[in-house]
Amino acid sequence: MGFFNRIFSKKEEIIDPIDISFLKNDIHSHLIPGIDDGSPDMETTIILLKKFIDLGYKKVITTPHVMSDYYKNNPEIILSGLNNVRKEIKKQNLNIEIEAAAEYNLEPEFEKLLDDGKLLSFGAEKYLLFELSFFDEPLRLNETIWKMIEKGFRPVLAHVERYGYWHNNYDKIEEMINRGVKLQLNIGSVTGAYGPEVKKFAERLIKDEIIDFVGSDCHHLHHLEMINHAIRLPIFHSLVKQSQILNKSL
Prior knowledge:
Elements: H1 3-7, E1 25-26, H2 42-55, E2 59-62, E3 65-66, H3 75-91, E4 97-100, E5 103-105, H4 108-116, E6 127-131, H5 141-150, E7 154-157, H6 170-178, E8 182-186, H7 196-207, E9 213-215, H8 221-230, H9 234-241
Parallel strand pairs: 1-2, 2-4, 3-5, 5-6, 6-7, 7-8, 8-9
């Protein structure tokens, strides 16, 4: 049984694909070679960028992990890698822009980065992408969100639908919004790629029209292949058409 046969139900309604170029920009990916668990080399990065082009994207904002225990990335490492990717894009005459920010793990060390101001954001609004532990809500979540805003950033919570400890606590989602946090959803979640509970929660967030950013969270080719299936799902059509989605404004 193939990968997509496993994640798609036979009862899933499939319709004509929506043109994803309407989004214009992807804001969550891992494309800089060899610095996190995304693309391992430049050859893979170019393959992935060509797929983004085929899908209709005009720009990708790639966001390497920053985690003190695993991925000790900083602006110098990330921007150096970005420069190398841009050189290869120019060499191969690819029609796509690439920028870089980061996906910051909300851990105690992150507050030190905030104090130092050594952070990479994206867009004129200085959107700052951060992720939580998949196991437990961080102890100083609210304080850290307040600190991000105080420092002039607009917090963006990565793949909000994937935090299982909030699936039965929707008040936390409303609290995030009330605290000024923008919400990002992974395209793969609507396909069931992260499991049925994540899919169900993603659908609820979409129906409530509270998602601000849509992201591929591309680490490898499978994540982009998921998009080919997502664009045929009614729930994804609904998401892309919602007026509050900010991808196209970047």
